[in-house]
């Protein structure tokens, strides 16, 4: 891949998991960012332990050759919370803008069961036509606001939300303006559908609307356990359903080839939440970095 166009980042979720704070409670911000840099990454996303003051955060990151490329934002448009969501987005966008990020990855969380104990493969929500309309209206507005700052908004499809499956991603992409992008998360598509073809289909269909990529791999036997035992999303994380690229069932070579061929420009973020007391974050960061170097030549 072209190193002038593609940059590699890693998410703090492998060190400290904001969705499941007991995972990595012992790990500090300083350890996390130092190990990201040590493993050879030049960017990262944002975790709850990061300093909130942009000046302090910038200093800590620049000492380690890191920059912020994105941070998760939850939207609640289908629940009718337009004003609250936009107010929160404004602060979030301004923070990311100050930090020099260009994209804002958002997830529509109305009805989401990802943080609950409900079975992830049985109880996911769906939207009716009116809710789809509210979501599209909201995302178009966010995209307009971001454009004024020279930034772009993309939707993170996610397990346990109403935008999880390929059909739901298609519906979202058809409802919103072309300026709204898709944050491709390889692990979440595979987790939902159980095959690599779907990742390639989504990638090929929306290539020119993908401004940000999350590289997540899946341990298939753990995924099967989650399905068979009707486990919730966070149980899956505890069990180790997610891992770094190169350690699971996904073949990233065709993914990198397709991105490269299409001239992808932006960040690719290794994001693999698992129990840091079982899967040492530094060791797994190195493992991911080495695998990407070998097969993407970056
Ligand atoms: O991008 C992400 C952020 C996390 O908080 C989330 O649960 C994870 O699965 C993910 O893909
Ligand atoms: Co992700």
UniProtKB/TrEMBL annotation:
Keywords: Cobalt, Lyase, Manganese. Residues 36-294 form the Xylose isomerase-like TIM barrel domain. The keyword Manganese applies. Its cofactor is glutathione; Co(2+); Mn(2+). Its EC number is 4.2.1.44. SUPFAM superfamilies: Xylose isomerase-like. It comes from the Bacteria. One of its GO terms (biological process) is inositol catabolic process. Belongs to the IolE/MocC family. PANTHER family: HYDROXYPYRUVATE ISOMERASE (PTHR12110), INOSOSE DEHYDRATASE (PTHR12110:SF41). This is Inosose dehydratase. It comes from Celerinatantimonas diazotrophica.
